[in-house]
């Protein structure tokens, strides 16, 4: 797939006006306040893994509406003292899988909470969290569940779960509650970006090819899933466009990005038809623009000109590790810088 989106020099300046509902902040304040009425931790129990270098717990926490959400909590075995924790969100159609599948962050010395995605088990990786509130009018795919009204939309529930995962992580033993990182790729990257816009004391954000950014453009320029599922739904229900566009405006990553304050690390492939590069740059370029702080947050972007949705893969992870070490370094520690730059990668 050759480049199909804007040229890189235009992408670096791309800062479109994204439709923002007048009650966006009130909507999310009310949603999160309702979730906060439920105690966050429901159950924490050791999980046997036969891995000697990490310890894992099966965690259940209360998400949207108090619904039980599952997660894996993993730490370096025998680690002393509270650790920074990376709260990770999974890609579209994935569940939390098995605890030995994602070990990068605990092996690097961090605590790690991997949140399940309600209702998405069975597409690419197994999960253990149903979505008991599915069933509102909409299409057959997660991205279209309840899409006719923001109050019913699936991503209202998933984003709320994600904020509650941060709260659950802070309540777990062995976690430094002042050093919580939101992380993810694709859908997980979009959810992490939403969390950065809703939680004002995160230590950092790590997001690659984030989904749900500049959604109005995405559904017009790509047919790749998941955006293509929205287009197919609208092709079948020709009267739903106004309602769908209104719903999507409540979950757009650009609007969340504008409110974020944490240092952020982005990545994008210029041949990505799943999450088109212009949608990612729209969030990156406006990150922190409306957070009310006198100085913009630090941010970095790595660009992969010849890659699609896979982006930088292991190379990007190596860069994330180096960048996060710099962000979290205590005064006097030796670590790489957390730069404010757009860096093009070969």
Automatic annotation (TrEMBL):
Entry annotation: catalytic residues: 186 (nucleophile), 272 (charge relay system), 309 (charge relay system)
Family annotation (InterPro entries): AB_hydrolase_fold (IPR029058), AXE1_dom (IPR008391), CE7 (IPR039069)
A Pfam family assignment: AXE1
Superkingdom of this protein's organism: Bacteria
Signal peptide extent: none
Spans through the membrane: none
GO biological process terms, semicolon-separated: polysaccharide metabolic process
Any one Gene Ontology molecular-function term assigned to this protein's record: carboxylic ester hydrolase activity
Binding residue positions for substrate: 92
Stretches assigned to the Acetyl xylan esterase domain: 1-325
The protein, known as: Acetyl xylan esterase
Species in which this protein is naturally found: Micromonospora haikouensis
Species classification: Bacteria, Bacillati, Actinomycetota, Actinomycetes, Micromonosporales
């Amino acid at each position: 797939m050759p480049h199909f989106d804007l040229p890189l020099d235009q992408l670096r300046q791309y800062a479109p006006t994204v439709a923002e509902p007048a009650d966006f902040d009130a909507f999310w304040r009310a949603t999160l306040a309702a979730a906060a009425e439920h105690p966050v931790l429901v159950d924490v129990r050791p999980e046997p893994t036969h891995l000697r270098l990490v310890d894992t717990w099966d965690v259940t926490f209360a998400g949207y509406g108090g619904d039980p959400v599952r997660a894996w909590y993993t730490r370096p075995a025998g680690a002393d003292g509270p650790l920074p924790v990376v709260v990770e969100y999974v890609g579209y159609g994935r569940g939390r899988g098995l605890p030995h599948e994602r070990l990068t962050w605990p092996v690097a010395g961090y605590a790690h909470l991997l949140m399940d995605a309600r209702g998405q088990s069975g597409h690419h990786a197994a999960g253990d969290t149903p979505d008991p509130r599915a069933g509102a009018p909409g299409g057959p795919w997660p991205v279209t569940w309840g899409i006719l009204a923001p109050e019913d939309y699936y991503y209202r529930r998933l984003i709320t779960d994600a904020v509650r995962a941060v709260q659950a992580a802070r309540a777990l033993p062995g976690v430094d509650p002042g050093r919580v990182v939101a992380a993810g790729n694709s859908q997980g990257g979009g959810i992490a970006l939403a969390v950065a816009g809703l939680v004002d004391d995160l230590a950092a954000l790590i997001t690659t090819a984030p989904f749900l950014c500049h959604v109005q453009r995405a559904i017009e320029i790509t047919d790749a899933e998941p955006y293509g599922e929205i287009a197919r739904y609208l092709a079948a229900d020709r009267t739903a466009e106004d309602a769908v566009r209104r719903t999507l405006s409540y979950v757009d990553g650009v609007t969340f990005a504008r409110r974020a304050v944490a240092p952020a690390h982005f990545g994008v492939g210029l041949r990505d038809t799943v999450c088109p590069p212009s949608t990612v740059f729209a969030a990156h370029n406006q990150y922190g623009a409306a957070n009310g702080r006198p100085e913009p947050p630090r941010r970095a972007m790595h660009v992969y000109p010849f890659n699609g949705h896979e982006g930088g893969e292991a190379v990007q992870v190596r860069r994330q590790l180096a960048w996060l070490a710099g962000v979290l370094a205590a005064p006097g520690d030796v670590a790489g810088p957390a730069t404010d730059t757009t860096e093009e990668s070969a």
